[in-house]
Amino acid sequence: MRKIIVLNVGAPSVLEVTEVATPQISAGQALVRVEVAGINFLDVYQRQGVISAPRPFTPGFEGVGTVIEAGAGDAAPRPGARVAWINNFGSYADVVLVPFDQLIPIPQDFAISAGLLFQGVTAQYLIREYRTIAPSDVVLVHSAAGGVGQVLVQWAKHLGARVIATASTDKKLEIARKLGADTLINYSRESFREKVLDATEGHGADLVFDAVGAKTFSESVASLAPRGTAVSYGFASGAPGPVEMEALIHKAARVAAGSVFAYISNPSEMRRRASEVLRGIEDGWLRPSRVQTFTLEDAPEAHRLLEGRFSDGKLALIPQGQQT
Q1: b/e map of 193-206 (b: 16 or more CB within 10 Å)?
Q2: Alpha-carbon torsion angle 14, 19, 103, 157, nearest 10
Q3: Phi then psi dihedrals of residue 282, to 5 deg
Q4: 152 FRET partner, CA 20 to 30 A, in 28, 132, 160, 323?
Q5: Which portions of the chain are predicted below pLDDT 50?
Q6: How far apart are CA 277 and CA 286, in angstroms?
Q7: Where is the Enoyl reductase (ER) domain (predicted)?
């Protein structure tokens, strides 16, 4: 089998394809042929050494594939079953071992964009955990053309909220517009705080989702409405700086932070959250992001695009096929 191994952290060039022996199945595990492995910012952070991982390691937590063989144990999947996973380290490979309780069954006819669930489940916990969104709410979504951002825009609109979307280019904002965003802000050209306040007649945003970090979070907090909440769930531009508590006190506003792994460590909770994403796709109101695929050999280029913020939608590796 082939997989990517990182011997030393650093630039995208440290992602090297290596031939290794196929792993042996143990009880409670399935050997899965990887159809597609999702690429996420967490993979970039681990490759850079910002988030530590024991070396050598194979990146990737997410994928879609077909069960080749299953070990002994209850709930063993049948060979040929199509499955997804979002919390199985080492997915940049053409075959992987996945514990039974980490497998998420998906329909055979699902496109790979629908089966890549990491961003969808991330959006699900963000939508459900920090506010009960009402039709009168204003929701500000940063990086609205990204994988998580696209799901957040659609989900907030599905719940009736008014959505303000930000992105770094007009092309990316057009993606958000097509998904239903009401107000578009190019934050590379203008202050999004001023635009948010202007668009809401001084009210501000009731809920802000921010995965950009250092470049945006202080303004995200300043954009809050009374009793609003700003949620930090990533730091693409670096970790957010200190928050001025006085501004929060006067508005009775809040800041919060979250990681998807805090909400999927329990397998039954993970499946419950994934099932809500799958229902949204099947019901037709949630459209998965466009997926741009790369071969294993082209993983360095995919990482360069993601960390340079030159991509929109989802990036993924096709271990057994051709890039698109």
Answers
A1: bebbbebbeeebbb
A2: 40
A3: -65, -35
A4: 323
A5: none
A6: 8
A7: 10-317
Q: What is the pLDDT of residues 202-233, one digit of tens each?
A: 999 999 999 999 999 999 999 999 999 999 99
Which residues of the chain form beta strands (DSSP E)? Answer: 2-5, 16-19, 29-39, 63-70, 82-85, 95-99, 104-105, 138-141, 162-167, 183-186, 205-210, 224-232, 254-257, 291-294, 314-317
């070396």: which residue's tokens?
55
CATH number for the domain formed by residue range(s) 119-259:
3.40.50.720
CB atoms within 10 A of CB 274: 22
CB within 8 Å of 262: residues ≥ 6 apart: none
Q: Which pLDDT score, from 0 to 100, does residue 247 have?
A: 83
Secondary structure (3-state) at 236 = coil
Which pair of structure tokens corresponds to residue 65? 């594939």
**Which fold is adopted by the domain 2-116+288-317?**
Quinone Oxidoreductase; Chain A, domain 1 (3.90.180)
Contact (CB, 8 A) for 228 and 204 = yes
